[in-house]
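=== RUN LOG ===
request id: a7f3
mode: sequence -> structure
chains: 1
length: 280
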Amino acid sequence: MIYHAGKWSYSRATCLHAIFPTKRRCPIDPSPGKPQHIDKTSQTTAAPRPTVATTSADDTAVLHLTRRQRLGPDHRDIYVLIVGLVLGLLAGPWVLGRVMPDVYQRAFVGAVEQRQAYQDHQRDIDEALDAFDAETARLIDSLEQTDVTDIAIEEKRSEREVARQNYEIRQLASALPLQSNLEAAQRGHLVRLEAMKLSLLLAVVVLMIFEAMLEPRSTSGLAALRPRLATARYGVIAIWLALVLAAPVTLLNVQLLFVAGIVVVAVLPVILPLTWLRGS
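=== RESULT ===
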């Protein structure tokens, strides 16, 4: 650009690809030796490209969020899910249930005291029945050593068997309250585990709502919280997976048909071209 006769003009040397790198025509018609008038209406001022010095933290967050949306989930989120699966397998009945059964029973099965009382009562019943059988055997042996007839011995044996059955019925009836307490304690512990899993799912929903409320291309400082919320969401899902694998008894009531229906309903909007949602 040169100044001539009170006007700024371009020479042929300045209207090169350095100024117009594309194949667009130069807005002026340079002629050698003649100053040209600048047509300011045909010139477009290019927006200054941000440099490292002028790029703010918000712009960096926006670039990171855009890259995250283009590339999908971060590998760290996948690692969090893998950690949850490994912890669930280690805390389940296959590892912790065999290495430390008492700890596993107290954490994921519950009703430890009620089960111990019921087992002690059953053991007492078995010992009492064994003692009754031993006494019956001694009585029959003593009768066989005498001049008692076989008919009398069989009658005595039948009498002892009836007495044993009546004794066993009375002992089993006395164990019914203990069994009821055991089943109630197990159901209560199972309900608490289900409540914990439901709370984790609700936490995932809340995190997804907050994540959706944040605009990924916003220049505000809140945009940087979006990847952190996504990582927290994956962490909560990992805890849920760990609880499911640690207490697989809760999976016995799962209906596979219902789960398949949920998967189909969730996948169809992704596969089908739902252009009607956009009003076209």
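=== NOTES ===
Residues 10-47, 50-55 have pLDDT under 50 and may be disordered.
The first helix runs from residue 57 to 71.
=== END ===
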